[in-house]
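User
Please review the sequence:
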Amino acid sequence: MSFKTHRRVLVPLAAASMLGLVLTGCTGDIAAEDKADTDCSDYEAYGTFDDNPEVTIGGTIVDAEADRLVESFADFETCTGIDATYQGTKEFEAQIAVLAEAGNAPDVGLVSQPGLLARLAEGGWLKPASEAVEANADEFFSEDWKAYGTYDGTFYAAPMEGSVKGFIWYSPAEFEEKGYEVPATLAELNELSETIAAEGDHKPWCVGLGSGDATGWPGTDWIEDYVLRQGGPEVYDQWVTHQIPFNDPQIVEAFDAVGDIIKNPDYVNGGLGDVSSEISTEFGDGGLPILDGECSLHHQASFYEGFFPEGTEVSPDGDVFAFILPPVEEGGELQVTGAGNFPVAFTEAEEVEALRAFFSSDTWANARAKLGGVISANKGLDPENGSSEVLKQSIELLQAEDTVFRFDGSDLMPAAVGSDSFWKGIVAWVSGDSTQETVDAIESSWPAS
């Protein structure tokens, strides 16, 4: 099977701000011989388009993951005649509201923040999802996941990619050699960190918080994981909906627990620098020192396996593996946070809805998972299609009825907080602000309405 080459450009922030994100691509022609060589039986429901209409897609997915995304819809293009062009930039979500208001938004935007989805819907820029998309949402996703793509009673987007957050990446060889055990509680995790630090040959943790305009978001994931585990799902829900203030003592407790690790000069930043280096270290590079024995532990989501160099074996006996951040009490209920992308539509067109229906299907979920590095909360996704043991476990976690799952808190909060003051607050906090100063500042930014 051949697939067309889609050129990806990282648009500088200044250019995006002034000119809008212009989505162009070199896609080539949809050749008849490609269709003859492709089994199109799974794509008949989406129709055929003889005029080869173009659908532009924008999002924050870049590099190798973007290449796999493009490959995941290549057969769809061949069989339907739709020419889908994707381009990614890390600044996409920071700029999309400006682009939408100026009329420069792509046909489809991959939005990972329900809070941002709500803002775009409130601005009147989004098109409601078609019946086909909603039918897939009802069949393949839980009511909670469908609700994340709904605003003010209108359904705008079904989930697409998904992830489980709160994994701790480590080297199985180092654990075996030094007799470390996977911790069963947060207290045991702290003890392991102390042990590694005391040995003195390297720091226990490596952390990367850099992400362009979104710098700081990996730190929000830390806080969310600790709020869920220490406070429980009820406190978590109250926090993200502002039923309790951002500076509530229970949130302060989570910040302080995380700070004991990522603001501790004895614990970070292995192979990368001191505590301040966390801000300048790109999140994709944050865990790589594990491979060189320069740190032992790295907190990042299931998708992080895609950031290790090609050839890295991800398995219990491989180069790296991961365990989920443990609960407060051993044997306690399994609590996980996660996230996902929602393909929202800025253009009302049959070809746009055909593509969005495909993205919400089990066909796409399984095809994309087979390409590696990504999973989905789609119930039709076979866990065996996960490209590693971590991803297979992640699929099972998302599908298990006894998993206490909560969507990424910063993504649920209003954009003024979740993708602004919270991110910036993490940067200021790691740079030296106290916990109380930080949570008070974020609380003061919460929209009055």
In short: The mean pLDDT is 91. The first strand starts at residue 54 and ends at 59.
